[in-house]
Amino acid sequence: MSYLSDFLEGGHSLLVTVNQTVKKITESGIQFDAIAFCGVSGSLIAPSVSIILSKPLLLVRKPNISSHSVSYLEGHGRKPTTSYIIIDDFIASGGTIYYITEIIAEKIEAACVGIFLYNHIDLSLYPIRETSINVPVFSIWKDGAEMEAALNSNKVCQST
Fold first, then answer.
1. Which of 3, 10, 137, 139 ranks highest by number of CB atoms within 10 Å?
2. In the prediction, which pLDDT does 62 show?
3. Is the separation of the CB atoms in 44 and 6 below 8 Å?
């Protein structure tokens, strides 16, 4: 699976990916207060993971995207947040990850403690922009073959 349109069909692929993301986050042992995401790619998975893990969301808006809100960061006022993870599809240049951490740093004192990627991609093919952030990055799949097998299986999925 390489394109967001596959997830927009919903159903099996989306449920498998949400469950696998929750499993990987739980297995990582990382302690965090919130889940940050940006754009459509993050919005497909992060809200469901947030509900399952009972963690608040930090929505970071991309610049020049029309919205009813004037804020580039939403969701940071109800509970104190000192640490967060980022959920995204993959890292190409690192620009989105860098942007998320910069916007959050402008608004609240919270540290990114991990990044979870739900779309397997060979990271060696993409030069990642150097940033001041040094956190563990997890792919929820071991490789593309594992991802394809899980998403194409006909097993009934249940929440973890």
1. 139
2. 72
3. no
What pLDDT, on the 0 to 100 scale, is given for residue 80?
Answer: 73
Strand 83-88 relative to strand 111-117, pairing: parallel
Is residue 75 within 8 Å of 98, Cβ to Cβ?
no
pTM score, whole prediction: 0.78
Q: Which two tokens stand for residue 63?
A: 């610049």
Delineate the domains of the chain, giving CATH numbers in brackets.
4-146 (3.40.50.2020)
Q: Which residues of 18-33 are buried (b: 16+ CB within 10 A; e: fewer)?
A: bbbbbebbeeeeeebb
CA distance 77 to 95: 25
Give residue 14's pLDDT band: very low, low, confident or very high (50, 70, 90). confident
The 10 Å Cβ neighbour count of residue 51 is 13
Amino acid at 10: G
Give the tens place of pLDDT for each residue, 42-99. Answer: 888 999 999 999 999 998 877 665 555 555 556 655 677 889 999 988 766 677 888 8
Q: Which long-range contacts (C-beta less than 8 Å, at least 24 apart) are formed by 43-48?
A: 44/4, 44/7, 44/8, 44/14, 45/7, 45/14, 45/17, 45/18, 45/21, 45/87, 45/118, 46/87, 48/14, 48/18
